[in-house]
Structures are given as structure tokens and as C-alpha cells.
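Schema walk-through. Below, the input block comes first and the output block second. Nothing else is stored per chain. Lengths vary across the set, and this one has 141 residues.
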Amino acid sequence: MRGAPVAKDVEQWLARLEPVRRAALEKLRAQILAAAPGAEEVISYGQPTYLLHGHLVAYGAFKKHLSFFPMSSTLIQKFPAAAEFTTSSGTMQFQPEKPIPATLVAKLVKARIAENFEAADAKAHRVAVKKAAAKGPKAKK
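--- output ---
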């Protein structure tokens, strides 16, 4: 959807698509939301994106394919079923008539949630250590 103004929300973004492509992405949208209750749905970089302790997943529509972005190239490699689709650097490409199976979408989304929570925990730990170091050693009584 190059050249078009950036959509304000996902409904507006989806409304621009032809019916077959829209239906395929609405199905993917429902699968993502089912696997990630509480995820925030936004438009980021011009495409529907889901946030939960950071960027979770996204999807897009291109001239010759639809894409699902688990936003982790190493994660895609952990799921052999992803090999049925064209993949590259954090992207799975598919056609409306051959969507990504719901079980695979759910597994990828849940794995991304785990990655985001792990990253958030690691960041909180680093911050706590930095704060403790800034206070310096305390005198023992």
C-alpha cells in the first residue's frame, strides 16, 4: 500500500485490501489476538502490529504475498512447520488460499510473548544491578 497515507488504525488499514486478502488477514488477526490476550493493536511502520512488553508480531500485505512477522528470525527456525512457507529474516510469506495454520500462529505468538517477558525481566535485572552499584557498598553495623 505504498503511496497511500498511513492508516490511523487496523480497521482502516484492512479496509484498503481486496476482500480475499482482507479475509485472510482478519483471520490471522483473530488468531494473534486469541494467542495474546491483552496485546495492544497499533499501526507501526505502516502495518498492523501487536505490542506486549515490546513489539510482539505484525502482518502486512504486499503485491505478490501476505506476510506474518514474528519479529525474530531465530524463532522461525525453531518451528519446522514454518519451512512450508517462504521465510526470511523474521518474516513468513503466505497466500490467502494457503494461510499459516492457526496452531503454528499460536505457537509463534506464545513463543514471542515468552521472549518479550524474558527480555523485560533481563532489562529489569540490569536496571536493579545498576541502581545498586550506584548506591555503593553499605557499611555494616
